[in-house]
Amino acid sequence: MHRCLPHPAQTGGESACHQSVQLWQPLAGSLAEVRRVVRPGGRLVLGVHERACCPVAAPQAARFDDVLLPVLQAARFPVTDAGCRQTRGGQAFLCHALRPAGP
Protein backbone atom coordinates (compact mmCIF):
# COMPACT_ATOMS: atom_id res chain seq x y z
CA MET A 1 0.00 0.00 0.00
CA HIS A 2 1.28 3.48 -0.81
CA ARG A 3 1.96 5.90 2.02
CA CYS A 4 0.74 9.46 2.17
CA LEU A 5 3.35 12.06 1.34
CA PRO A 6 4.05 14.36 4.30
CA HIS A 7 3.04 17.51 2.43
CA PRO A 8 -0.15 19.58 2.33
CA ALA A 9 -2.34 19.34 -0.77
CA GLN A 10 -1.38 21.36 -3.84
CA THR A 11 1.84 22.78 -2.39
CA GLY A 12 4.48 21.24 -4.64
CA GLY A 13 5.47 22.96 -7.85
CA GLU A 14 7.36 19.97 -9.18
CA SER A 15 7.80 16.31 -8.36
CA ALA A 16 10.65 14.31 -9.83
CA CYS A 17 11.43 10.64 -9.52
CA HIS A 18 14.34 8.79 -11.05
CA GLN A 19 14.73 5.04 -10.81
CA SER A 20 11.97 4.16 -8.36
CA VAL A 21 8.57 4.71 -9.98
CA GLN A 22 8.66 1.12 -11.24
CA LEU A 23 8.59 0.03 -7.58
CA TRP A 24 5.57 2.11 -6.49
CA GLN A 25 2.79 -0.16 -5.31
CA PRO A 26 0.04 0.35 -6.11
CA LEU A 27 1.12 2.55 -8.98
CA ALA A 28 -2.28 4.18 -9.52
CA GLY A 29 -2.70 5.02 -5.82
CA SER A 30 0.81 6.40 -5.61
CA LEU A 31 0.25 8.67 -8.60
CA ALA A 32 -3.02 9.85 -7.07
CA GLU A 33 -1.06 10.88 -3.97
CA VAL A 34 1.50 12.75 -6.09
CA ARG A 35 -1.39 14.51 -7.85
CA ARG A 36 -2.79 15.54 -4.46
CA VAL A 37 0.50 17.21 -3.50
CA VAL A 38 1.47 18.86 -6.81
CA ARG A 39 -0.30 22.18 -7.34
CA PRO A 40 -2.22 22.89 -10.56
CA GLY A 41 0.25 23.72 -13.31
CA GLY A 42 3.00 21.80 -11.50
CA ARG A 43 5.21 19.28 -13.27
CA LEU A 44 5.80 15.60 -12.74
CA VAL A 45 9.05 14.22 -14.16
CA LEU A 46 9.72 10.48 -14.13
CA GLY A 47 12.74 8.54 -15.35
CA VAL A 48 13.45 4.82 -15.47
CA HIS A 49 16.51 3.12 -16.95
CA GLU A 50 15.70 0.14 -19.16
CA ARG A 51 17.74 -2.18 -16.92
CA ALA A 52 15.43 -1.37 -14.01
CA CYS A 53 12.26 -2.44 -15.78
CA CYS A 54 13.19 -4.80 -18.63
CA PRO A 55 15.45 -7.49 -17.20
CA VAL A 56 17.58 -9.39 -19.70
CA ALA A 57 16.08 -12.64 -18.43
CA ALA A 58 12.59 -11.53 -19.46
CA PRO A 59 12.88 -9.52 -22.71
CA GLN A 60 9.27 -10.42 -23.54
CA ALA A 61 8.02 -8.51 -20.48
CA ALA A 62 5.88 -5.47 -21.14
CA ARG A 63 7.84 -2.27 -21.59
CA PHE A 64 7.38 -0.04 -18.57
CA ASP A 65 6.27 2.92 -20.70
CA ASP A 66 3.40 0.73 -21.94
CA VAL A 67 2.41 0.28 -18.29
CA LEU A 68 3.11 3.80 -17.00
CA LEU A 69 1.52 6.02 -19.66
CA PRO A 70 -2.04 4.65 -19.34
CA VAL A 71 -1.84 4.86 -15.54
CA LEU A 72 -0.66 8.47 -15.77
CA GLN A 73 -3.59 9.29 -18.03
CA ALA A 74 -6.01 7.57 -15.64
CA ALA A 75 -4.51 9.64 -12.77
CA ARG A 76 -5.28 12.77 -14.85
CA PHE A 77 -1.67 13.73 -15.50
CA PRO A 78 -1.56 14.82 -19.17
CA VAL A 79 1.79 13.74 -20.60
CA THR A 80 3.62 16.55 -22.39
CA ASP A 81 6.71 14.58 -23.42
CA ALA A 82 7.64 10.92 -23.18
CA GLY A 83 10.16 8.70 -24.83
CA CYS A 84 13.32 6.70 -24.64
CA ARG A 85 16.63 8.52 -24.60
CA GLN A 86 20.05 7.01 -25.20
CA THR A 87 22.34 6.92 -22.16
CA ARG A 88 25.90 5.71 -21.67
CA GLY A 89 24.56 2.44 -20.27
CA GLY A 90 21.65 1.80 -22.66
CA GLN A 91 18.33 3.63 -22.72
CA ALA A 92 16.17 5.46 -20.22
CA PHE A 93 12.49 6.24 -20.43
CA LEU A 94 11.75 9.87 -19.50
CA CYS A 95 8.30 11.31 -19.01
CA HIS A 96 7.09 14.85 -18.31
CA ALA A 97 3.50 15.51 -17.25
CA LEU A 98 1.56 18.51 -15.97
CA ARG A 99 -0.99 18.62 -13.21
CA PRO A 100 -4.03 20.45 -14.60
CA ALA A 101 -6.42 22.54 -12.55
CA GLY A 102 -9.28 20.80 -10.82
CA PRO A 103 -9.68 18.17 -8.12
Outline the structure in words.
Helix content is 25%, strand content 36%. The longest helix has 11 residues, at 27-37. The mean pLDDT is 84. It has 103 residues and is α+β, with helices and mostly antiparallel strands.
Short description:
The chain has 103 residues and is α+β, with helices and mostly antiparallel strands. It has three helices and four strands.
Number of strands: 4
CATH C-level name: Alpha Beta
- Overall number of structural domains: 1
Unreliable stretches, pLDDT < 50, 5 or more residues?
Answer: none
Please state how the strands of the largest beta sheet are arranged side by side: 1-2-4-3
Shape category: globular
Run of helices and strands: EHEHHEE
CATH topology: Rossmann fold
What is the C-alpha radius of gyration, as a whole number of Å?
Answer: 14 Å
CATH superfamily: Vaccinia Virus protein VP39
Return the structural class. Answer: alpha+beta
Average predicted local confidence, pLDDT: 84
Helix amount: 25-40%
The name of the CATH architecture is 3-Layer(aba) Sandwich
Percent of sequence in beta strands: 35-45%
Biggest pleated-sheet summary: 4 strands, mixed
Count of DSSP H/I helices? 3
Distance separating the two termini: 22 Å
Topology:
Blueprint (H helix, E strand, L loop, with lengths): L11 E7 L8 H11 E12 H4 L10 H11 L4 E9 L2 E9 L5
Parallel strand pairs: 1-2
Antiparallel strand pairs: 2-4, 3-4
